[in-house]
């Protein structure tokens, strides 16, 4: 954990350590990474306040582990040592570096479109006593922007990857195909580590690229409908994080898939979908053949009285968690009759058949 994080955790109410030591007493032991986080935070807070404009940030030295405090005035070194920290005389104060960073922030806030895409961010490097601007592959436009956007102790660093927002793929949440909306069933992977989303086959038969609540997921790579009702989407987006979670929407926090033990007839199950959210019921029968019309007959479905509506297709069917948060994966919402206003019958494709067909294992937690 970085020192900056430690300070954030400790908060502003930590009792300050003594800054003065009687003349006949030994100096306190030198603080380092092994010290209690509260002590480190208190030392930083107190010295920052006491040193004022001479304060030049605090960090843990990567080589020695010692707590280092920068000062712009050499006459203040003794105060730092008296608090148990190691002093380093620096050229730029913490306030000066913060001001440079603030200038860059202002440039971005005022005209974000003027910041080249190759400039991936900027931050204060306390140990180097500089503000660092990260530029993707030393792009010329990015380097030029860093040079002119702010004056003072600024340096650039070359990075080879651009940051990206990360988002979770969660069971029951919406997924979009070119021709419609369905719901995530479960996350799975093969023995080589390739990631997949498993959902209903009558959804994946739409084919093509698939997106989710946070952006691109990948493309359909398998589909079986009718006869069966399962399909898979290969997750190719590095921003999409595969999780063992299923969304309970307004009914509670997400539940975690722990395995795939089948719930018996009469047992409680719940399903999650992007139209009606979290709905529960009981298993009424196994191995039902369902005629959806138009020649679409599906075999081996499980019958339940947990209601569903269009758009819930493909969503997670799991064991009823009761008052807990861990569940067993059961299957993928296929279809049914009725609705969630008047009640109805809903069928799901057992997940075990789909996993066996594709040679996959569930992402569990």
From TrEMBL:
The active site is at residues 202, 229, 313. This is Streptogrisin-C (Serine protease C) (SGPC). Disulfide bonds join 182-203, 270-280, 307-340. Belongs to the peptidase S1 family. Its EC number is 3.4.21.-. Residues 1-25 form the signal peptide. GO terms for molecular function: serine-type endopeptidase activity. Residues 92-150 form the Peptidase S1A alpha-lytic prodomain domain.
């Amino acid at each position: 954990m970085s020192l900056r994080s430690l300070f954030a955790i400790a908060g502003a109410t930590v009792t300050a350590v003594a800054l003065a030591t009687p003349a006949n007493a030994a100096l306190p032991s030198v603080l380092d990474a092994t010290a209690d986080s509260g002590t480190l935070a208190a030392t930083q807070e107190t010295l920052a306040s006491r040193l004022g404009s001479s304060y030049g940030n605090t960090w843990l030295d990567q080589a020695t582990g010692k707590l280092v405090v920068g000062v712009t005035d050499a006459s203040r070194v003794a105060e730092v040592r008296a608090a148990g920290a190691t002093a380093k005389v620096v050229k730029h104060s913490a306030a000066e570096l913060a001001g440079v960073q603030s200038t860059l922030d202002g440039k971005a806030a005022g005209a974000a479109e003027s910041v080249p895409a190759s400039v991936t961010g900027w931050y204060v490097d306390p140990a180097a006593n500089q503000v660092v601007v990260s530029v993707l592959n030393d792009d010329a436009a990015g380097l030029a922007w860093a040079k002119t956007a702010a004056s003072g102790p600024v340096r650039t660093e070359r990075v080879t990857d651009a940051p990206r927002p990360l988002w979770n793929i969660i069971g029951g949440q919406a997924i979009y195909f070119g021709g419609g909306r369905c719901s995530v069933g479960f996350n799975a992977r093969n023995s080589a580590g390739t990631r997949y989303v498993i959902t209903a086959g009558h959804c994946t038969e739409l084919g093509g690229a698939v997106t989710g609540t946070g952006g691109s997921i990948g493309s359909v790579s398998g589909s079986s409908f009718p006869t069966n009702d399962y399909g898979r989407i290969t997750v190719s987006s590095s921003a999409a994080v595969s999780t063992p979670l299923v969304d309970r929407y307004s009914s509670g926090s997400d539940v975690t898939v722990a395995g795939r033990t089948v719930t018996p007839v009469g047992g409680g199950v719940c399903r999650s979908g992007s139209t009606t959210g979290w709905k529960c019921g009981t298993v009424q029968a196994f191995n039902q053949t369902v005629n959806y019309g138009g020649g679409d007959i599906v075999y081996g479905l499980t019958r339940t009285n947990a209601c569903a509506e269009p758009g819930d297709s493909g969503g997670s069917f799991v064991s009823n968690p009761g008052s807990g948060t861990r569940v067993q994966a059961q299957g993928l919402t296929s279809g049914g009759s009725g609705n969630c206003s008047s009640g109805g019958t809903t069928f799901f494709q057992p997940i075990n058949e789909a996993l066996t067909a594709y040679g996959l294992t569930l992402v569990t937690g």
